[in-house]
Amino acid sequence: MDVESKVLERIRPSAEEEARLAEVVRSLRSKVESTLAARGWDAKPILVGSVAKGTHLTGTEVDMFVAFPPDLPREDLETRGLALGKLLERGVHMYAEHPYTRGWFGGFEVEIVPCYRILDSSQRMSAVDRTPFHADYVIGRLQEGQANQVRLLKAWTEGIGVYGAEAKVRGFSGYLCELLVLKFGTFRDVLAASLGWKRGEAIELDRPAAKPFADPLVVIDPIDGNRNVASAVSIDQLAGFVHAAREYLRAPSERYFFPRALKAMAVTKVRALAKRRGTDLILVSIRAPPVTEDVMYPQLRKAHLALRELLDRAGFQVHESSFDVAGREAIVLFELASATLPRVVRHGGPPVWVKNAKDFLGKWSENPRTLAGPFIVEDRWVVDVVRDETDAAEFVRASRKDLSLGKDLDRSARTTLKVYEGATAVAAKYAMAWTRLFDKTFPWQR
Length: 446
What we know:
This protein is an alpha+beta fold. The chain folds into four domains: about 5-125, Beta Polymerase, domain 2; about 145-255, CCA tRNA nucleotidyltransferase, domain 2 (Poly(a)-polymerase, middle domain, Orthogonal Bundle); about 265-340 and about 390-445, Poly(A) polymerase predicted RNA binding domain (Alpha-Beta Plaits), CATH 3.30.70.590; about 345-385, no CATH class. The chain is built from 15 helices and 15 strands. The chain has helices at about 5-10, 15-40, 50-55, 75-85, 130-140, 145-160, 175-185, 185-195, 235-250, 265-275, 295-315, 355-365, 390-400, 405-415, 430-440; strands at about 45-50, 60-70, 90-95, 100-105, 110-115, 200-205, 215-220, 225-230, 280-285, 320-325, 330-335, 345-350, 370-375, 380-385, 420. The strands form four sheets. A five-stranded mixed β-sheet has the order 1-2-5-4-3, with helices on both faces. Strands 10-11-9-15 form a four-stranded antiparallel β-sheet, with helices on both faces. A three-stranded mixed β-sheet has the order 6-7-8, with no helix packed on it. A hairpin with a 2-residue loop joins strand 13 and strand 14. The longest helix is centred in the first third of the chain and has 25 residues, at about 15-40. The protein is elongated and about 85 Å long.
């Protein structure tokens, strides 16, 4: 039995699971319809997502949309959608463009999402309104056996760490995987095609692009030419997909689908690793605000960039950095060539023969910050002066008020921002985050 046949035996729902799933969908639909009728609401439940298309994996979730008339005010759409969410056990309100509910029903995880009932995608009033059209498109075009090819692609992308369009992952959505199989035919055909991809690769199915896109990967939505289905895919996730495809086609293995879990290094090992590398570690911690991951991670990504640029401008050489979440803390990690800098820094001036060179000389000749000079190096005036910042951790603490970290993180950082350095930066609760920063092996190599 080849690798993919073995994998399908593990990821494809059993006949028993399919029967239970069908009963849960039937029961859920019935309860939604009964609730709508009892409240006099004009709406229709629509099964969407991978379950509707038959491309789901074992242990899947159920996506039930409820389509309301387009003349219903947005506020009422949201209120009624959340009211229907009370049909679920352990329901939690989630927030995208508008709120919806995620919970459990009959042993399966379920999302109940309100949307507007439209006739075509050009009429959409919210981002999710075209989702039922996506389901219809895929259902109407999947050929015999292709559902399993989609399952393989989904499981493979999940195994190599690039599955999911959410802000935390910035990878390949389930719908994108489905379109790629429809475009190229099979799981292996998608991988083979990707070997020719490069930044800006554009793929079309039945509809041309209605406008230019600047994303790393462009797959035009066959339902809406103004939308790039692959807009979430970051350049590093695209590159990771292509590399993994090349390696898998060279030597297929179940390890790509089911990699070993990454194990956190011991704190002593992280510290020893930093010592061997001759670098210094600092960690910035902010209490995580009570928002969803899709709200949190863009802000955390922004905070990471702002802090890195801050350190770079001050002259601290950042060798490696990342961001993560550890328990209830949003954290940004830095590996620095050195967490301290010498007191002296050389400041360059104009060429000697420039007329306003005298301004440079006047500014620095009697300046209390001047340690040496001004003097000439080649054809330019230079001066050695006292550096403004010499300690990275202290610098970050002092600069907190000047940083833009994102609305929710900014608010939290006012009272909870802490900067740890050296041994305190490598506490046990941060070990997994440091492991993810230092461990450069691909998932299938573990």
